[in-house]
Design goal:
By secondary structure, the chain is of the alpha+beta class. Helices cover 42% and strands 23% of the residues. Strands 1-2 form a two-stranded antiparallel ribbon.
Length: 53
Amino acid sequence: MNLSEDKLLDLADEALAQIDDNRYDAEMKEDGIQDILKFGIAFSGKKVNVKTK
């Protein structure tokens, strides 16, 4: 079952939200790192969607 493009976009957004909600970048910020790239990746079969923040 391949997911639609819209569903992949939603899942990539959810992945980015999870990074913020769970504060996965907190340790890097505590170490003084300021430029942090966050990637939300969703894929289904050969389709992929990548969002950055």
